């Protein structure tokens, strides 16, 4: 998934295609020629330079050829403080602040670590891991990602049979952490979409258990109440602690939260 300001999630522009990272890049279950549907945003909010906001609002409102959902998304982006902050601080996505806030709460990322990022586009989480001192980051997404110094990036659907082995080959050893912003293209059918989301989280979790060092961590985006059933029981068995956390950078209207599993037992 991806656009210049939203990389890992459900907050991308309605008229574009995506894979999976934040409110932003995800590997997709459906064929690459499908377009990923996006969540609709709310109206423009008050605050800031009112004259500039009004001008931007009018420009978006009258833009030719845009769908209503696209206009709403643009209005939301214009007034999103994390979008503006990402632009000022050089992050490719507002999703970067989700990982930064997760790390601030749980102190996961440390200098010298090897990190795998599943559903990397456009690269905001890779940037965060490197900024925190990661020695090596391997990212994978079905969408193209501009190169990031210090990272190995694979343009590949993680659900493809050969993808996990490709990531392992690039790693050259075990990982200290696996972070996942994987999410499928949605169909609009609640039960179907939920099953697809759960399947991707399970895939990421099983991959993490194959590659993590003892003491390693796994972070994954989940929806609708978080991980559940057999997956949660498996993670509780494999990790010392498992919990759910919603960072402030996750929009309040979004159903996303993040599963944090720490202390991999090996």
Short structural summary:
By secondary structure, the protein is α/β, with parallel strands linked by helices. Helices cover 35% and strands 19% of the residues. The longest helix is centred in the C-terminal third of the chain and has 22 residues, at 190-211.
Descriptive report:
This protein has about 270 residues and is of the alpha/beta class. The chain folds into two domains: about 40 residues, no CATH class; about 170 residues, Vaccinia Virus protein VP39 (Rossmann fold, 3-Layer(aba) Sandwich), CATH 3.40.50.150. Helix content is about 35%, strand content about 20%. Strands 3-2-1-4-5-7-6 form a seven-stranded mixed β-sheet, with helices on both faces. Helix 1 packs antiparallel against helix 2 and helix 4 runs parallel beside helix 5. The chain is globular. The two termini are about 30 Å apart. The N terminus is likely disordered.
Rg to the nearest angstrom? 18 Å
Outline, from the CA principal axes? globular
CATH superfamily of the largest domain: Vaccinia Virus protein VP39
Q: What's the CATH architecture of the largest domain?
A: 3-Layer(aba) Sandwich
Number of helices: 8
Topology-level CATH name of the largest domain: Rossmann fold
Q: State the distance separating the first and last CA atoms.
A: 32 Å
Biggest sheet architecture:
7 strands, mixed
Roughly what is the average pLDDT, rounded to an integer? 78
**Number of domain modules:** 2
In what range is the share of β-strand residues?
15-25%
């Amino acid at each position: 998934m991806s656009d210049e300001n939203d990389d890992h999630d459900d907050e991308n522009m309605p008229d574009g295609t995506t894979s999976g990272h934040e409110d932003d890049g995800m590997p997709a279950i459906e064929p690459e020629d499908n377009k990923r549907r996006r969540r609709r945003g709310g109206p423009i909010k008050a605050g800031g330079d009112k004259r500039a906001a009004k001008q931007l609002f009018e420009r978006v409102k009258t833009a030719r050829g845009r769908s209503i959902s696209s206009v709403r998304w643009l209005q939301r982006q214009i007034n999103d403080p994390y979008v503006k902050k990402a632009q000022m601080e050089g992050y490719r996505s507002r999703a970067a602040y989700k990982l930064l806030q997760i790390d601030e709460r749980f102190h996961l990322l440390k200098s010298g670590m090897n990190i795998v990022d599943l559903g990397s586009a456009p690269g905001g989480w890779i940037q965060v891991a490197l900024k925190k001192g990661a020695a090596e980051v391997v990212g994978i997404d079905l969408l193209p990602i501009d190169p990031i110094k210090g990272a190995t990036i694979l343009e590949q659907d993680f659900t493809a049979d050969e993808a996990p082995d490709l990531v392992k080959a690039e790693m050259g050893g075990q990982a200290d952490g696996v972070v996942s912003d994987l999410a499928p293209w949605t169909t609009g059918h609640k039960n179907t979409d939920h099953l697809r989301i759960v399947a991707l989280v399970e895939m990421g979790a099983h991959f993490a258990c194959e590659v993590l060092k003892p003491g390693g961590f796994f972070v994954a985006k989940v929806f609708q109440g978080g991980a559940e059933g057999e997956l949660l029981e498996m993670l509780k068995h494999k990790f010392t602690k498992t919990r759910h956390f919603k960072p402030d950078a996750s929009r309040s209207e979004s159903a996303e939260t993040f599963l944090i599993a720490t202390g991999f037992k090996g």
